[in-house]
Amino acid sequence: MIKHHPTFEMLKAYVTGDLPASLAAGVSIHADKCDECRKQIALLTEQIAEVSFEPEHDPLHFGNVSDETMSVDFEQMLDNICSDDSITLTKPTEAKTITLRDTPYQLPRAMQHMEISSSANIGKLSRARVMLDEGEIHTSLLHIEPGGGVPMHTHNGFELTVLVEGSFTDEMGEYFPGDFIMLDGQHVHHPVSEQGCLCYTVANAPQKFTQGINKLLNPIGNFIY
Ligand SMILES: [Zn+2]
Predict the structure, then answer these.
(1) How far is the centre of ligand 1, averaged over its atoms, from the C-alpha of 51 (Å)?
(2) Burial level of 218, CB count in 10 A (0-12/13-18/19+)?
(3) pTM
(4) How far is the centre of ligand 1, averaged over its atoms, from the C-alpha of 71 (Å)?
């Protein structure tokens, strides 16, 4: 069962379009699996639509438009859209998949149109970059083979993990598909996956390893960032 959700502030920023594409996709991947957040998003979307249709917020300055006029306008608009032959419904495309270490995964809906690099491997970790071109914000798909994990680390910036498939555990418990895990420098953890898993990750700085031979682990930090 999903236990970790985006904050209310983040859902609001998602609805108003104020999140970078990487985080918006993370919210979307979570919401596809979380009834609670999907409802919250629908409600916020409705509220924001209502606010932007209040006359004083009308960017076209039509003055006091009555409700009746508004509804007529909408009907007219819908008629125009429906009678326009140039608009065709897009056919649902076949879901894209990615294969990491011989394991095929269906990509989440929010990632269907994203460009993804070929994967690179270190030990039981495989990483494929999601090419979003957001500067210091790096987005990846991270695959952990059964029995693998990421050494104990903390975060120089933020690290978002949305579990897409499989499961993993760390000091804070066990995670399930859809879990939305936002961590920063206050958290130290050592994720391990017994069964293997696929995660969608977003980070704005390399992870910082906190145990043992730090220098030798730095390449992994750069690898998963
Ligand atoms: Zn949720």
Answers:
(1) 24
(2) middle
(3) 0.79
(4) 34
